[in-house]
Amino acid sequence: MARVLLLHSMYGLRPAVHQAADRLRAAGHEVHVPDLYDGRVVDTPEEGIAIKDEIGRDELLKRAVAAAAPLSGERLVYAGFSLGAAIAQNLALGDERSLGLLLMHGTSDMADGVSADDLPVQLHVADPDTYEPADWLNSWYLGMRRARADVEVFRYPGVGHLFTDPDLADYDAEAAGRAWAIAEDFLAGL
């Protein structure tokens, strides 16, 4: 069993995030799902970007750190969707006790010299993905390897960015099923 902090996308704490948390709980994991948007949920990328910009990157990171702090007595798996994945990556790389990092649909840049000694990292991403272009993903992967992370990337051809959210147009049931099966195996192995 892993203790997981699962962070939502720029759309807010949508039903799909709760469904994912329930799926992981059914597999035996303890899952915490903070609301970084204070109850706001949106339906379009434009609305999500507007809220993200209004709150600001630094404030979102502070809110995520505050959500993780009460859980820090035990090793955490940081996980997230798109924007939440980017924030989860920052938290995991800043926590030397991090147990793992599960990224669904997103990544973040990394500071030079960051170390992730043998941190298990798994990324699930659309191929192609307008938010995660191939050149960026290649650079990100090399950066993770330089940081000495144990990283796996799973690409899903022909699907939309948030292909695991059944309430969005990006949803692809087959790809989502594959991604969740692989992610559950990843968490079970930590």
UniProtKB/TrEMBL annotation:
Residues 4-187 form the Dienelactone hydrolase domain. The keyword Protease does not apply. It comes from the Bacteria. Pfam families: DLH. SUPFAM superfamilies: alpha/beta-Hydrolases (SSF53474). InterPro entries: AB_hydrolase_fold (IPR029058), Dienelactn_hydro (IPR002925), Dienelactone_hydrolase-like (IPR051049). GO terms for molecular function: hydrolase activity. The keyword Acyltransferase does not apply. Keywords: Hydrolase. This is Dienelactone hydrolase family protein. The lineage of its organism: Bacteria, Bacillati, Actinomycetota, Actinomycetes, Streptosporangiales.
